[in-house]
Please model this.
Amino acid sequence: QLLLDNGADILAGGPFTMDALVWSAALGHTDTVEFLLERGVNAAGKRGQTALMMALRNSHAQIISLLRQAGAGEAV
Model:
């Protein structure tokens, strides 16, 4: 929240064009995934690695459920 309050771009991409939602899903950071979804980050993702793909790959069941509830599909 501190970063957003100071102007950080919630949709900024990092290495390999993966954004905060994708990284958080890949690493199993459920609280961060919830935070990002609550702030309006699109769960459906974009081309390339999606948050749902990364959560599935790493067997993060709670994150998979959150993403599907937020509209993430199996493939983008």
Notes: The chain has five helices and no strands.
